[in-house]
Structures are given as structure tokens and as C-alpha cells.
Specification:
The protein is α+β, with helices and mostly antiparallel strands. The chain has one domain. Helix content is 21%, strand content 43%. A hairpin with a 2-residue loop joins β1 (39-50) and β2 (53-63). 16% of the residues are buried.
Length: 196
């Protein structure tokens, strides 16, 4: 066997061995995140009046596509945003926005520690799996969106939960318009029940 063929064979063997070793290191995969169809779906949205004001509770089903998960594993941080806007309905003019609140989460994979870091409101926490980190963002209960809402007026809440693609690195933003795996967004309007 010529020397050139042996060297080529050794390089291919080493490459195959490295691939197998990396596959067995336990990097998170799509199977660990639930394996459902990629996308986002709002499963619960409730408003209630409390002593603290108007409270909002939500739950979303969030499954990342393979492309999004690969970007996370390569070190790209993702920013998810939940927004709620309280609007007063008016028959004689445009509806009047009364309050707007936003929550932002930054999700990143730490390859050295093999942990997922989720940052929210200046605080960061590490999780062992992607599904644990996503579980924190998937639901919120009694999120205060306004101090006081008069019971006589008609109000509604515009709610949205989305992946903020504007926070991605510029080269990644160029071709995202036609890729469905990156279009993670859901919006809904809910009427505020008249209360006390």
C-alpha cells in the first residue's frame, strides 16, 4: 500500500473516531427537548383583577427547530420576548394604550460546563438541559401588567411571545426571512373581564 493511501486512511480513521467520541459526550439533542414539531403555540392566556392590579397568566408550547438548536450549540445566544399591552376600547376614537410591559430572556449554551444559561432581568441561572431552561420561559403566572383598571371601561390585552431575531448576529439575520424554523412568534388578544 503506498504511503499516501495509508496517510489518507489514518486521517479518515482519526476523523471517524473523533466524530464518535464527540457524539458520545452527551451534547444535548432534539430528542432531549421533547421532540415535538418545531414551533410555538399559546396554550393558556388568562387575565384577572387582583389587589395588585391587572394580572396576566400565560403558558406556551415552545419547541425549537433543528436549525435553532444547532445555532445554540454553536454559541449563538437567543433572546425571547413576552409583551403585554393593556388597551382601553373607545367607540369614538382610536383605542387608547394604557400600559405596556415586557419580559426578555437570553438563552445561551455554555460548552465548557455543558450547561444552559438563562438570563432574565439581570439575573442568570444555569440549567442541565435545554428543556429545563425553556420550561422557565414557557409559563408565567400573575404577571402584573397594570396597577389599576377601572371596572366600567372596556379593556383588552394584546399579548405576544416571540424569538427576537433582531438580537441575532447580523450575518445570521440576512437569510432568516424565508426559514420557518426561525419564525417563532405567537400573538393573541384577550378581553379583560369587568370586575370589582
Amino acid at each position: 500500500m503506498p504511503l499516501l493511501h495509508r496517510r489518507d486512511l489514518l486521517q479518515r480513521s482519526a476523523s471517524a473516531l473523533l466524530t464518535v467520541a464527540l457524539a458520545q459526550t452527551g451534547l444535548p439533542s432534539l430528542a432531549q427537548t421533547g421532540g415535538g414539531h418545531p414551533g410555538i403555540e399559546l396554550t393558556q392566556l388568562i387575565t384577572e383583577r387582583g389587589d395588585d392590579g391587572l394580572l396576566l397568566s400565560y403558558a406556551v408550547r415552545l419547541e425549537l427547530s433543528k436549525d435553532v438548536e444547532d445555532a445554540l450549540l454553536k454559541g449563538v445566544a437567543l433572546v425571547f420576548v413576552a409583551e403585554a399591552e393593556l388597551v382601553k376600547s373607545r367607540w369614538y376614537w382610536y383605542d387608547k394604550p394604557k400600559a405596556r410591559v415586557t419580559r426578555r430572556w437570553r438563552l445561551a449554551y455554555q460548552p465548557l460546563t455543558r450547561h444552559w444559561r438563562l438570563s432574565f432581568d439581570g439575573l442568570s441561572r444555569s440549567y442541565n438541559s435545554l428543556s429545563e431552561a425553556l420550561g422557565v420561559m414557557r409559563r408565567a403566572s400573575q404577571w402584573r401588567i397594570s396597577d389599576n383598571v377601572s371596572g366600567d371601561d372596556d379593556h383588552y390585552v394584546n399579548f405576544s411571545f416571540r424569538l427576537d431575531t433582531d438580537e441575532l448576529p447580523r450575518p445570521m439575520q440576512i437569510g432568516l426571512g424565508d426559514q420557518n424554523g426561525w419564525n417563532l412568534a405567537v400573538q393573541r388578544r384577550i378581553t379583560v373581564n369587568p370586575g370589582r
